[in-house]
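Illustration: Phage shock protein A, PspA.
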Amino acid sequence: MGLLKRVSQVFQQKSNALLNKVEDPTQALDLSYQKMLENLQQVRKSIADVLTSQKRLEAQRAQLQAQYDKLQGQARQAVQQGQEQVARLALERASTIKPQIDQLTPQIEQLAKQEAALEETGRQLNAKIEAFRAQRDTMKAQYTAAKASTAALEGLTGLSDQMTDVTMMMDRAKDKISEMQARSAAVGELADSGVLDSPALGGGGDDIEAALAAGNQGNDVDLQLAQIKAELAAPADQTNAIGAPPAPAAIAASEPAQATTPPAPATPPAPGTSAATVAVRILSDHVYLVPASLRPALDGLDDALDQALDHDDADGFTRLLAQVIELVRTNGTPTDDPAVTAEVVVPAPDTTLDEAKALVSDDANQDASTND
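Result:
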């Protein structure tokens, strides 16, 4: 036996096995019943077509018969009036109509026979359909009962797929419980022997780990403090920009700084701007003219961003960057004037922590090369 023939036989065997597995007898019975109904509908349509043709031929024959009778009457009337030529003409026309009537009569009779035969076929098919429908309902009920009985027996004997899955789940649960019990016993023995307290294992005596944890906690506190300062500065500066009096907390916070820090020399405004605005560029966006009263809020958020960069806090950096961009877009006015030079450059909204570090590193390298 050749290889191709063997492969073909194997494929046929697999296909038959798959079809036998997915075949549903109830669906097959429903399909057969549906096809029988379609055949009955086709027979009824054929009866209607034959009857339509018969009626059309009968109407045509009646029309020709009326013409024939009319010509015969006209011929008789012409003979009575002595018009023999007119009578001859009428009889000639009637003689041409008579063969047509004689041809239509057998055709009508043939159609009547076909109609009767189709009606008998339809009655027989309808009777078969009714008998099959009753048999189909009985077979479907028997199949459903047998299927339910088989499923119940398989469930009782543990042969069904569901019972097999339940048994496997119980076995896995037992294995998991045994594993956890063994692990608990092992950890208990290690705790009793004092091995878990060893610094090498990161136990309670690991003072280096504790120091690192304390340092990280201090860094988190510094970062949170910078964020709070920036958030408090932003609302106060926005209120001053509108014209309302500053909050008492903001005044109290600013007085010590004025007492200890000498006033810085006034910085000239950037080209294209005024002393009342600050030009802020958002990369991949626009340049915005922001009220100068918001400069402290921008500086506070800038310090918080530096803290996030220093502590590798990606979430904090993303949140603070969104606050800066929201502050600039909400209070600033976009401008496309090429004469405006940005005093503050804000990274793009989708800038990551690593990309920001790269920007800062490139900026530092440029400053170093400029100083050299």
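Reading the tokens back as a structure: The chain has two domains: 9-154, 220-257+271-371.
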